Amino acid sequence: MKFKVGDLVQLSAAGKKSDQNSHALGGCGIVIWIGESYADYPIETNWVNGVEFKDGQIRRIDFKPYELKFFKKSS
């Protein structure tokens, strides 16, 4: 798996297209656990600043690998 615990991630283009991730748009997360590759959602994150979050709120959200990419600071 390309991600490891501690990586800073954001939604990939595929992750942004998925309706189930709409609450996480605009945010970023830290990978806190990686399960077996055969699991439905093997990457567990602590996610912050999603569009539906209150200021400073952190949520635990699980993702499939293709729904994430490494975080890049926008200019």
Q: Numbering strands along the chain, what is their spatial order in the largest sheet? A: 4-3-2-1-5
Share of β-strand residues: 25-35%
Structural class: mainly beta
Shape, please? globular
Note the total helix count: 1
Mean pLDDT: 92
Please give the largest β-sheet: 5 strands, antiparallel
Q: Would you count the extended β strands for me?
A: 5
N→C terminal distance: 28 Å
The whole-angstrom Rg is 11 Å
In the predicted model, the low-confidence regions spanning at least 5 consecutive residues are: none
> What's the SSE pattern?
EHEEEE
Helix content: under 10%
Describe this protein's structure.
The protein is mainly beta and about 80 residues long. Helix content is about 5%, strand content about 35%. It has one helix and five strands. The chain has one helix at about 15; strands at about 10, 30-35, 45-50, 60-65, 70. It has a five-stranded antiparallel sheet. A hairpin with an 8-residue loop joins strand 2 (about 30-35) and strand 3 (about 45-50). The protein is globular, with a radius of gyration of 11 Å.
